[in-house]
Automatic annotation (TrEMBL):
Purpose of the protein: Acts on leucine, isoleucine and valine.
The name this protein goes by in its record: Probable branched-chain-amino-acid aminotransferase
Keyword presence, Transferase: yes
Annotated Gene Ontology cellular component terms: cytosol
Enzyme class: transferase
Pathway of action: Amino-acid biosynthesis; L-valine biosynthesis; L-valine from pyruvate: step 4/4; Amino-acid biosynthesis; L-leucine biosynthesis; L-leucine from 3-methyl-2-oxobutanoate: step 4/4; Amino-acid biosynthesis; L-isoleucine biosynthesis; L-isoleucine from 2-oxobutanoate: step 4/4
Reactions the enzyme catalyzes: L-isoleucine + 2-oxoglutarate = (S)-3-methyl-2-oxopentanoate + L-glutamate; L-valine + 2-oxoglutarate = 3-methyl-2-oxobutanoate + L-glutamate; L-leucine + 2-oxoglutarate = 4-methyl-2-oxopentanoate + L-glutamate
Keywords: Amino-acid biosynthesis, Aminotransferase, Branched-chain amino acid biosynthesis, Pyridoxal phosphate, Transferase
E.C. numbers: 2.6.1.42
Length: 287
């Protein structure tokens, strides 16, 4: 099946899609991105992703490329053209094309917009989730504005590669205080020895995960104990359960942390319950 990408106002065949060599995203990582999960051909957690997109653009002083209504139409068209029922849609906005200079172009240039969509085998990802995955820890070495969803992801890419080489699904960054911040592409959670769900608060230098935010609502509605309190790798290894959240991972159980098996080494019941609850909510509210 042919794939299509949206590039600066036009849908083109995926294999022919291109941006200018002096696009500031390509040369300076001067841009932001968002990823929506797609359920039943609809956008999941749409409002939260749009809110974070506008905030990231504003923090970097990049102009909004179009209205939310217009962008919604383009995202949906990308999903439709690529015949995605279950999958992901990716949006990238950069400051645009200009002669290479670290300072912003003056006068300003139009931002560049790229959108792609791809299908995911949900049955396969659900089967993987039921088995659980492992994580490794790496030193926190990212810049101090991880709250911005920037395309400058080299530390994340290196962490992901380290995880893959060790057979893990994710890497958790650990700060100078020995506390887990978040994963290379997800938020980190544990169910501690007392049965309390814990994840790092967003006052720390982490991304304000949209899936994380929705899951917090699910947890509170279920009446489960929750604390936005950081944890160490040792606490994670002693936890009853652990899991990660993100638009790609949804809610994925973790069964091993830095080589130490959690509990009986099986996907935890709380994590699996939350995965099912999150997916049910996402399908109901997708637009």
């Amino acid at each position: 099946m042919s794939r299509f990408a949206y590039v600066n106002g036009q849908f083109v065949r995926h294999g022919e899609a291109a941006v200018h060599i002096e696009d500031r995203g390509y040369q300076l990582a001067d841009g932001v991105y968002e990823v929506w999960a797609v359920f039943d051909g609809k956008l999941v957690d749409a409002e939260g992703h749009f809110a974070r997109l506008w905030r990231s653009l504003d923090e970097l002083r990049i102009a909004h490329p179009m209205s939310e209504a217009a962008l919604t139409l383009v995202l949906r068209e990308a999903v439709r053209r690529n015949k995605v029922r279950e999958g992901l849609v990716y949006l990238q906005v950069t400051r645009g094309v200009a002669r290479r200079d670290h300072a912003f172009p003056n006068p300003a240039v139009p931002p560049s917009v790229v959108i792609t969509a791809k299908s995911i085998d949900r049955a396969a990802t659900n089967a993987k989730a039921e088995k659980g995955g492992s994580v490794i820890s790496v030193p926190e070495n990212r810049w101090g504005r991880c709250d911005i969803k920037s395309i400058g992801l080299l530390p994340n890419a290196l962490a992901k590669q380290a995880a893959r080489e060790r057979g893990a699904v994710e890497a958790w960054f650990v700060d100078d205080m020995g506390l887990v911040t978040e994963g290379a592409s997800s938020n980190a959670w544990i169910v501690d020895a007392e049965g309390t769900l814990r994840t790092r608060d967003t006052n720390a230098n982490i991304l304000r995960g949209v899936t994380r935010s929705t899951l917090l609502e699910v947890i509170r509605e279920a009446g489960l104990p929750i604390s936005e309190k950081p944890f160490t790798i040792a606490e994670a290894q002693a936890a009853k359960e652990a899991f990660i959240t993100g638009a790609g991972s949804l809610v994925t159980p973790i069964v091993q942390v830095d080589g130490v098996k959690l509990g009986d080494g099986q996907a935890g019941p709380v994590a699996m319950k939350l995965r099912r609850a999150y997916i049910a909510r996402a399908r109901e509210k997708a637009v």
